[in-house]
Amino acid sequence: MKMKELLLFLSCVLSVSADGQHSDISIAGCSDSYGEHMYGLDGEEVGYADFNKKEFIYPQPPFIDPLNYGEGAYESAVANLQICRQNLKVDLQAYKNPPLQRDAPSAVMIYTRDEVEFGEKNTLICHVTGFYPAPVNVSWTKNEQKVTQGSSINTPYPNKDGTFTQISRLQFTPQLGDVYSCAVQHLALTQALTKIYEVEASARSDPGVGPSVFCGVGLTLGLVGVAAGTFFLVKGNECS
Ligand SMILES: *[C@@H]1O[C@H](CO)[C@@H](O)[C@H](O)[C@H]1NC(C)=O
């Protein structure tokens, strides 16, 4: 089931890039308690304003030679946020406080970035999509203890249908038997949506057994064939 969801997600990504179009996006938005200013390309964040750290962040690795929005990028994001809050106030008055549309996340998936190898550093990903308004809060546990370090979350990325996607990541080192969870909170949810990830023994041994069994059976059949061939060859020589 987990695998199927992952494949669906991947095929969705592929279909976007297969049509040969790129999508460049810039989003600036706000609510009373939250603000976002982000530039994206093809579903990835190129840069965003971190209003907690008070700086503009370029999350991509250096080898992609990332774009830079210049010196005043953070300051202009702050200015935009103020304008947005101002506009929001005016709009709310003008439209007489319309009821807020609320869509709970339609899907939450948890999976690892890399194939699991015990003791090898990896990243757990909690992929949350289909919600409105942004944002969601994502919290992590390891063996039922709250995890406070090593996690991060993307800024909300708009989907084509007007809902949002957010991805939270947790650095972890898989150890057999450890149980992780990500819990998602959203305005439209009365209780958190929780997904569990268990580090299982099957993670590493499964792919190993299949090929070696096939190889063993194949080798045995081959040797039987050679033996039979030799037998008939010798038999044939005896007769003539
Ligand atoms: C997310 O966390 C913040 C800070 O703890 C809190 O103010 C906010 O209400 C939370 N949002 C949701 C949807 O639970």
UniProtKB/TrEMBL annotation:
It is a single-pass type I membrane protein. Residues 105-194 form the Ig-like domain. Coiled coil: none annotated. SUPFAM superfamilies: Immunoglobulin (SSF48726), MHC antigen-recognition domain (SSF54452). Keywords: Disulfide bond, Glycoprotein, Membrane, Signal, Transmembrane, Transmembrane helix. Residues 1-18 form the signal peptide. One of its GO terms (cellular component) is MHC class II protein complex. The chain crosses the membrane at residues 209-234. The keyword Aminoacyl-tRNA synthetase does not apply. GO terms for biological process: antigen processing and presentation; immune response. SMART domains: IGc1, MHC_II_alpha. It is found in: Membrane. It holds the Pfam family MHC_II_alpha. Belongs to the MHC class II family. This is MHC class II antigen alpha chain. It comes from Oreochromis niloticus.
